[in-house]
Amino acid sequence: MKNIRKTIGLATFAGALAVAPLAMGAGTANAESGVDWDAVAKCESGGNWSIATGNGYYGGLQFTMGTWHANGGSGSPSQASREEQIRVAENVLRTQGIKAWPVCGRRG
């Protein structure tokens, strides 16, 4: 019985170690680049990921439609999830750098 408890205890510990990195990354806006996209969105759009004000910029990270589509987005950024907007932003970052967000990029 003691060996069974020890085995179960080790299996539980190993499982926790395997899941911990996933849980730690959940809900953060720091994507693979390390940019804090929530901070950029707070500056760009007040943190409103579904904003469409009619000024030619859409979503939390204020994409133009051309930039959005050229970097893998479909539909409108304001209709896309926060995660999808971050995915497209990572593509923009690879090609244009953080200067694509000239004022708010510094906050990320």
TrEMBL record:
The organism's place on the tree of life at top rank: Bacteria
Single GO MF annotation: hydrolase activity
Signal peptide span: 1-31
Record bears the keyword Signal: yes
Cross-referenced InterPro entries: Lysozyme-like_dom_sf, RPF
Domain Resuscitation-promoting factor core lysozyme-like, chain residue ranges per copy: 34-104
TM segment ranges: none
Keywords for the protein's UniProt record, in alphabetical order: Hydrolase, Signal
Coiled coil (residue ranges): none
CDD domains to which the protein is assigned, alphabetical: RPF
Family, per entry: Belongs to the transglycosylase family. Rpf subfamily.
Protein name: Transglycosylase-like protein with SLT domain
Organism (species): Mycolicibacterium moriokaense
